[in-house]
């Protein structure tokens, strides 16, 4: 029998009239719950809040004044508030905050909550709720947001008393930011907002049982160090948890001390500069052949803040088949969930690595350092033979004159080194992760686990405002988006313009849902069902009177007060990028016309073994190598059979 959600359970309890609700009298300043919420956010150091008002949260909005110490950013859709808070949190390391109303306002932000949960983004979502006496009556705009979000939050609160607000906010921020970061929902009844309370600060948290492990326990560090001393094909498999932990220095030092190559997940792009020879790049479905091959042929796989996601592993049973596993993660639920770890280490990545590196150095002093010459020779050969690159079309395509990969590479080459890169979801996301030259952590923001189309623009706005807050705007923000993904949140151009977020937007406009079309091409006999957007099918030779866009992205940008540009040719593209880089007082959108049949390579088909990675059609470098014989794979010297 299913248990009731917290709101359902609460609605079954007889309600006491609000006037008879005796709250504990404490020393402090008397104020309403709404005033206490605003004051608590100020005391917690919140500088920016994203949201959209509505009836059930109006008492709080009434207390947001010119004198309020945080900035409020009005979005045009509640989902965008959540994604903007995510972009802000990832780029700054702060907790993102959004404030929305009950019912549809709260349900609209559910996608962003689920996205933050999948990608471990610290976020506090404050939602309005009907009054205590109306709970369970199907009152106007009542929705059980605590129950709805229960599977996709780190924690949630239903607040019915004004006096509880400062403590709940203190706990919510602590929970969101500590341990494995994640979203926390605070559902605030109108009763709590309008009731009186006595404010005091700081607040004592009541969190029995919540004590995330940060330092490794027992002999696991010595066991891990011993494994390194016995490994001739080690790989450091680094995930987004390492970025959240701020462990970039420790990752670089571990790679230096052990000599092991580094491969990253999508979320960890930038934790090590792409120019570092130890960095093989991203592995998995659309990862570099060298990175995927390294994991497949490793004898020691060190998962660092990673969760063995299916987009990384392909067929899980055949992933890294000869490797022993060291798994470092602050969330004990992740260890052993998909792949059994030979040495499980629960703890904060940066903290664990600081303790592990000296253990490895001690083991090396006793046993020596394994010779990885053969291992690196084989990996460098893969890197040389199968680089991340792209093919220009032999004939000028009829549906656009630009290769989308070329556009991404030009954006990267011409960008400020401090640029924060944001992507939507689709082919453009993969090309950006492959072809942008990343140099530092927290410079890459994209929806990973949930794959949320429409994420890009609001996340870019959050990152831009975060850059202004923490870096005085020195870090420009480029959004690389697809025409399909962009249209899911294009209304936020109003937010970008009016709230002074001068994001630069590159739309790779192929007039189709590109990644879906790629799958239809490869796996569905080119049956392009419901993927033709027809939003810009034209060429450079199209007569102006015949040129019809639905929408016309240039006019759309201009309608929102932004600069709109369009490029059909390489010369036009270069000029548009130069101009965009010079404009810093308003958003700039460039509509790049690209050909619809471009493909993301390399690729591992969903559910296939990673050894089946296709570099280009007809070329499967790992399968060909593995079929040369088992003798190569079994070389005692540790040479990889790739």
UniProtKB/TrEMBL annotation:
**Keywords on this record?**
Amino-acid biosynthesis, Branched-chain amino acid biosynthesis, Magnesium, Metal-binding, Thiamine pyrophosphate, Transferase
Xref: InterPro entries: Acetolactate_synth_lsu, AHAS_TPP, DHS-like_NAD/FAD-binding_dom, THDP-binding, Thiamin_PyroP_enz_cen_dom, Thiamin_PyroP_enz_TPP-bd_dom, TPP_enz, TPP_enzyme_TPP-bd
Q: In which pathway does it act?
A: Amino-acid biosynthesis; L-isoleucine biosynthesis; L-isoleucine from 2-oxobutanoate: step 1/4; Amino-acid biosynthesis; L-valine biosynthesis; L-valine from pyruvate: step 1/4
| Ranges where the record places region Disordered | 1-21, 620-642
Outline the extent of the Thiamine pyrophosphate enzyme TPP-binding domain: 424-592
Q: Which family does it belong to?
A: Belongs to the TPP enzyme family.
Name-wise, this protein is Acetolactate synthase
């Amino acid at each position: 029998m299913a248990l009731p959600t917290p709101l359902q359970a609460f609605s079954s309890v007889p309600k006491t009239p609000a006037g008879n609700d005796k709250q504990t009298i404490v020393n402090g300043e008397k104020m309403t719950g709404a005033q206490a919420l605003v004051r608590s956010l100020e005391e917690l150091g919140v500088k920016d809040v994203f949201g959209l008002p509505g009836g059930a949260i109006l008492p709080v909005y009434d207390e947001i004044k010119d004198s309020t110490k945080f900035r409020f950013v009005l979005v045009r859709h509640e989902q965008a508030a959540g994604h903007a808070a995510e972009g802000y949190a990832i780029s700054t390391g702060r907790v993102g905050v959004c404030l929305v109303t009950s019912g549809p306002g709260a349900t609209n932000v559910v996608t962003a909550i689920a996205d933050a949960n999948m990608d471990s983004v610290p976020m506090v979502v404050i939602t309005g709720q009907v009054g205590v006496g109306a709970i369970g009556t199907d009152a106007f705009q009542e929705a059980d947001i605590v129950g709805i979000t229960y599977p996709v939050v780190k924690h949630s609160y239903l607040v019915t008393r004004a006096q509880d607000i400062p403590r709940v906010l203190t706990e919510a921020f602590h929970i969101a930011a500590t341990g494995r970061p994640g979203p926390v929902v605070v559902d605030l009844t109108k009763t709590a907002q309008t009731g009186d309370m006595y404010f005091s600060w700081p607040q004592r948290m009541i969190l029995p049982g919540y004590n995330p492990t940060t330092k490794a326990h027992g002999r696991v560090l010595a066991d891990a160090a011993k494994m390194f001393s016995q490994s001739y094909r080690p790989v450091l498999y680094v995930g987004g948890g390492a970025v959240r932990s701020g462990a970039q220095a420790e990752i670089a030092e571990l790679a230096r001390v052990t000599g092991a190559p580094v491969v990253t997940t999508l979320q960890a792009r930038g934790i090590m500069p792409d120019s570092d020879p130890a960095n093989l790049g991203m592995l998995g479905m659309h990862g570099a052949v060298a990175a995927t091959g390294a994991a497949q042929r490793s004898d020691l796989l060190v998962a660092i803040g990673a969760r063995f996601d299916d987009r990384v592993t392909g067929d899980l049973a055949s992933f890294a088949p000869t490797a022993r596993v060291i798994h470092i993660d602050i969330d004990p639920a992740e260890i052993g969930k998909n792949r059994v770890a030979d040495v499980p280490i629960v703890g904060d990545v940066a903290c664990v690595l600081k303790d592990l590196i000296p253990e490895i150095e001690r083991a090396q002093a006793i046993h020596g350092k394994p010779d990885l010459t053969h291992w690196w020779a084989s990996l460098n050969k893969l890197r040389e033979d199968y680089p991340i690159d792209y093919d220009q079309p032999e004939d000028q395509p009829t549906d656009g004159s630009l290769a989308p990969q070329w556009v991404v590479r030009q954006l990267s080459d011409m960008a400020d080194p401090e640029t924060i890169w944001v992507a939507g979801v689709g082919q453009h996301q993969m090309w950006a992760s492959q072809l942008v030259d990343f140099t530092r952590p927290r410079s890459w923001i994209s929806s990973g686990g949930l794959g949320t189309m429409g994420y890009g623009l609001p996340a870019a706005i959050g990152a831009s405002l975060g850059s202004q807050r923490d870096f005085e705007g020195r870090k420009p923000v480029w959004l690389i988006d697809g025409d399909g993904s962009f249209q899911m949140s294009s209304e936020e151009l109003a937010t970008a313009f009016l709230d002074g977020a001068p994001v630069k937007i590159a739309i790779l406009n192929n007039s189709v849902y590109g990644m879906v079309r790629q799958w239809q091409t490869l796996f569905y006999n080119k049956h392009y069902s419901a993927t033709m957007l027809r939003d810009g099918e034209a060429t450079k030779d199209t007569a102006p009177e015949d040129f019809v866009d639905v929408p016309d992205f240039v006019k759309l940008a201009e309608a929102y007060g932004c600069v709109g540009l369009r490029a059909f040719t390489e010369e036009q593209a270069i000029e548009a990028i130069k101009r965009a880089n010079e404009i810093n007082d308003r958003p700039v959108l460039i509509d790049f016309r690209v050909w619809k049949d471009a493909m993301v390579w390399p690729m591992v088909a969903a559910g296939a073994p990673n050894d089946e990675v296709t570099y280009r059609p007809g070329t499967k470098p790992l399968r060909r190598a593995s079929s040369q014989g088992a003798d190569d794979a079994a070389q005692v010297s540790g040479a990889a059979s790739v």
